[in-house]
Write a structure and sequence with these properties.
This protein has two helices and seven strands, in the order βαβββαβββ. By secondary structure, the chain is α/β, with parallel strands linked by helices. A hairpin with a 5-residue loop joins strand 6 and strand 7.
């Protein structure tokens, strides 16, 4: 059965992403990259990313949404179909990249959730 296997990332809207990244570096000791993101590697195949995005990004959906969670899944073809069967709003688009396949659904509060099936070897 298609399911979530972990958290791929947490993405935050920020008025000043560079300042936010610096805050995480300075106050919490998070080794943010110069690009303003960090990927934690628990194992080679299990990573979690924390990244501030520009406040005006449309990647999270509605402008009032401050964060988006990325969930790692094992079957991006099967999970959206199952979610639709349960009445969950699933966005029609998917995206393929070097990192894998991405799709999106929306929780009952209107928060966009990114579903990520990592590329082989990730």
């Amino acid at each position: 059965m298609a399911r979530v296997t972990g958290i791929g990332g947490v993405f935050l809207r920020a008025r000043d992403p560079e300042r936010s990244a610096e805050w995480y570096r300075k106050h919490l000791g998070v080794p943010m990259s110069d690009g303003g993101a960090i990927t934690f590697h628990r194992t080679e195949a299990e990573t979690t990313t924390l990244a501030p995005f520009a406040d005006d990004t449309d990647y999270f959906g509605e402008p009032g949404r401050r964060a988006m969670i990325n969930l790692r899944v094992d079957d991006l073809a099967g999970l959206p179909a199952r979610l639709r069967g349960h009445g969950v709003e699933v966005l029609p688009q998917t995206e393929d990249s070097e990192f894998g396949r991405f799709g999106w659904c929306v929780d009952p509060e209107g928060n966009r959730i990114e579903l990520w099936q990592p590329a082989a070897g990730m």
